[in-house]
Amino acid sequence: MKKQLAAMLMCVSPLALADTGYYLVSTYDVEGQLSLDYKYWNAHYKGLTVAAPEIGIGYGVTSRWYTEVYAKWVKVNGGAGHWVETAWQNDYLLTQGQYDFDLALHTKLEKARDNASGYALEWGPVLKTEIGRTQFNANLFFQRDYRVAPGGGEHPMELTSQLQVKHNWKPWLQPGVQAFGEVGKWNDWLPYRQQSHRAGPAVFGHRDIGRQEIKYEFAYLIGRNSARAAKSFSMRAQLIF
Question: What domains are defined for the chain?
Fold first, then answer.
């Protein structure tokens, strides 16, 4: 079964399995807040469906520093889920309101469940600004897989992007648009037809439930993933204490 799963996943690039290809990173002052974080995405290709639920615990260490540890499972064509890796994410706000935009540094370290498989690193700037009640986000991340590539070679440093527009209409209903992309090697982009870009509508919101708060988001993305046509759904729910 493990060999069959590995063979299927070879059809999908590591970037297609990266959670930041489906969830936009946005930083806030959440000092002292503890959260349970559930995420889920799926990608429907022709003849192949990949899904990945994730569950984590996050904490606002200071007004600038947010950290989270989470585990990821992968399911192929509706089969059983397989725990594939654990990740540690850290986001640090470099500015806090002194400019018209906020700038943060995002880092994420991923460790495969199999210790022999090594790890992967992601890092880059996170930008956020607002015009009236509309929020704009733009992120640029560098990703490097330090696991041994097929044939014994090394994986290159790759470049990914995230864009989002969200209108703060009601606390419980905030419509928006998201877009994600991968262009390949950071200093030698792939031809456009081999790149992956997808975009679509998104809905956000938050509500108080007793002494806790729940935040949620849903998105439906259409475009290309691993240079193949795909349709994707993603959701995220955070229970904040």
Answer: 33-240 (2.40.160.40)
pTM: 0.90
Per-residue pLDDT of the chain (241 residues), as tens digits, is 444 455 445 445 554 456 778 899 998 899 999 999 999 999 999 989 999 999 999 999 999 999 999 999 999 998 888 898 899 999 999 999 889 999 999 999 999 877 556 789 999 999 999 999 999 999 999 999 887 666 667 889 999 999 999 999 999 999 999 999 999 999 999 999 999 999 999 999 999 998 899 999 999 999 998 888 999 999 999 999 9
SS3 string, 61-110, reads: CCCCEEEEEEEEEEEECCCCCEEEEEEEEEEEECCCCCCCEEEEEEEEEE
